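Data availability (excerpt). The following record was deposited with the supplementary files.
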Amino acid sequence: MATTETSTPDLFIEADARDLVLREVAAYFPSVPPERRSVLDRLGQHVETGHVPPELQGLLGEILGASLMSGRSRRLYTAEGERLFTEIFRQTPQGRETSSQLASINRALKTLSGQTITSVRVNMRTLGHFTITIGTPVATITLAVRPNGVELESLNVGG
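Predicted structure:
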């Protein structure tokens, strides 16, 4: 009987992005507790080779996500650096989760296709947490927008 492997492959980093990623890993170093620094060293070694194993991809996603969300990647490395970081981030566990969330939201938004929008509201729950509610005669969708992404909060179909 054949077995199916579901392991995550190494994340490949193109040669032109490695130096920027290494600089970002080095910048992250002082904020990491001493007991975790050996893991950062390992990550740096793997980035140099262009192959990041699955067990280090979450840490890479954490570092790149912080750089992208803070605007640091664009400030220091221009739009091209931001583009490279985004491309790599999408391959990390956090990036794959974001892609999955977006696909789910887009499936829900399809329920509104061809309908007349009767209401659109944006509300603030608290600083950094906003909702967008789109209403039609048939459905109402509420999206939650937070610094780490967008989520489908609710989908009400019918009366």
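Summary of structural features: The longest strand covers residues 149-157.
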